Task: structure prediction
Amino acid sequence: MGKVVKALAALALGAVTAYLFPRRKTPSLPVGESSYFLEDGSGTCRDSIPVYYYKPATWTEEQPVFIAFPGYTRKAERFEKHLEDLAVRYNMLIACPEFSTKKYPGARWYQEGNISDAEGEKGHIQPRRQWTFDAIDHVTAAVRRRTHAKGKVILFGHSAGGQLMHRYSLFASHPAADAIVCANAGWFTMPDENVCYPYGIKNVPLSDKDLARAFSRPVIMLMGGNDISREKPFRDTPEADAQGQNRMERCSNYYHFCEAKAAELGVPFRWKLDVVVGSAHEGEKMAEGAMKLFCQEPLDETVGM
Result:
């Protein structure tokens, strides 16, 4: 009897608390430009992560959200402004997070995801909790909350952001998005156990089960049809050149290497390879190419992350 009384008292207290202190729903984003600073403990300091938004007037919560990670300069606010016309044209809400060079310095923290404690092959693999990928999940969750998104959430990365996205798609435990688009990445981490990180996965804690899960994700490797320049900051190390002589070759070789690896493991391979005809190393054109894919070919509802 005493347990019943305590249970009823707890329920009554909960009801009173909910009445007196109701949970506040996150206010809706305004139409047009806005920004939000996300508190996040990852990186080298406690600085927040700025997220720059653009919401078209006709966008509703059922329409897609396009989270775009910029390239080498990491200028997220500028990238967001370049995508505003596309947001209106394709009725997608844009969110551009800025992983600053102060909080995530160098290629080690951004492109390479802080998997190793140093750039190149001389570093040591770090525990998963120190990798940058959790911050991507935090950003995605925050964008969902602020937008009240009920439709698809798409992660898109261009150039250096494309490198971050391709490693995120390969290494993240449970990506929090409906699709990942890796555009114009300069070089890749091949799922090759005989090659050291960052060019391969030797000594990285990535099991066959992890690879199978990665290959089952809705990932699009997106190439620019004219992205064949070797001008800096293109990486021209012997290890990178072994993957191909330009970004198009490297992306295609990476995709087919992963496809063959999935066949070797006997697991499904649900990635796609596509080309944005007429685009060189241009973030805006690549973003438009990605948006067109989702307008013309809706995501397969049966594909889970």
